[in-house]
Amino acid sequence: AGVPCHPAGAQLSQLTSDPPWMPVFQYEKVKLTCQGSGTPGPTDWYLNNRHQWQSDLSYIHVTQNKPGIYQCRSPSARLSPPITVSFSNDQVMLQVPTRVLLEGDQLPLRCRV
Hints:
This is FCGR3 protein. InterPro entries: Ig-like_dom (IPR007110), Ig-like_dom_sf (IPR036179), Ig-like_fold (IPR013783), Ig_Fc_receptor (IPR050488). GO terms for molecular function: transmembrane signaling receptor activity. The chain is mainly β and about 110 residues long. It has a single domain, classed as Immunoglobulin-like (Sandwich). It is about 0% helix and about 45% strand. The protein has no helices and 12 strands. A 4-stranded antiparallel sheet has the order 6-5-8-9, with no helix packed on it. A 3-stranded antiparallel sheet has the order 1-4-7, with no helix packed on it. Strands 2-11-12 form a 3-stranded antiparallel sheet, with no helix packed on it. It starts with 13 loop residues before the first strand and ends with a strand. About 20% of the residues are buried. The model has no long low-confidence stretch (mean pLDDT about 90).
């Protein structure tokens, strides 16, 4: 299914994750929240560039059986930038933030045991 066109001035939907670091341990759950124009209506959710479902909720919980690249589209807004949700069974892992970084931004790293 194609992505419907929106006016050029339509704002991007914003996708955030809690926790805001990836990868996460396999037993953890990731909450993705979609924010957009504030127009009421369902949120469209995409996984690996394919429309997966519509939901009346502006958030979803992702577990280890559904890793991948997530995007969302709230009503009257454009498709969000992607967030890659990944899980690790390592005992120690180096995490990076899920927010979009621009060239010149500092890249914080986090080590978790």
